[in-house]
Sequence to fold (200 residues):
Amino acid sequence: MCLVYIVDDDEELSESLAWLLDSVGIHSRRFSDAGTFLRSYDRGRAACLVLDVRMPELSGFGVQELLNETGSPLPVVFVSAHGDIRMSVRALQNGAVDFLEKPYDPQHLLDVVQAAQRTARERFARRAEQSELHAKLGSLTDREREVLALSVEGAANKQIAGRLGISVKTVDVHRARIREKTGAETIAALVRDVLRLDPR
Fold:
């Protein structure tokens, strides 16, 4: 289940939003300040964030900046009673998925949140795949990483052997060990995974 975080110092508005989401089966957690949210944010589950721009101590933009600095995949939907074009452009340029002005149309907000949830699930799945791939690659020796890196560049076995100063047969042995350690059916399949999850 994809959680929706609501961070807004307007208690009445955040409570009504939580009720609206709950009415269609969407689970949410409310926070009245950015600090409490940041301490409670669980990176281990798919989630999106409905975030107010103007809040005491740390603004919505400050929260967005901190999330970006830590590489968070959390899709952010900004809401504001004082929004303008400059604010919305800033939010979207920094990675927000949408920017809504208060008071917002309930159905439109639901549509936006559900789209953000889909984005969150996609990003979370991608992050899990990346973590799994990085763990597998972490088990390789330095020489195996060199062989794989040259394979990613498109080098054939003979070229890899020449560049590393080893025999073609040794390259074959390294490639076999790479397949065994990563569980890849073929080096080509592993190269596709590396390029897909870590585009160069």
